[in-house]
Design brief:
71 residues, alpha/beta, 3-stranded parallel sheet, 2 helices, 37% helix, globular
Length: 71
């Protein structure tokens, strides 16, 4: 069984829609500790999707980078 502890997705043109998909994947996260999303196009809506999941369902993720996203 493979376990990803860090995912670097900076500068991949990820939008709010993409952030919603990532957030959905984080709902059952038990291994990911760091997520790098800097330099995308998340916007406030994308950050909202991520924070809603992280506030309620996630105790594993320790580092979230999302600078330079138009927020």
């Amino acid at each position: 069984r493979k376990q990803c502890t860090a995912l670097w997705l900076q500068q991949n043109e990820i939008t709010a829609h993409g952030a919603a998909i990532i957030a959905d994947g984080l709902r059952d996260n038990t291994t990911l500790e760091a997520l790098e999303l800097s330099g995308n196009s998340l916007s406030d809506k994308g950050v909202y999707h991520l924070t809603q999941v992280l506030m309620t369902n996630n105790s594993t993720l320790r580092k979230l980078y999302f600078g330079s996203n138009g927020i």
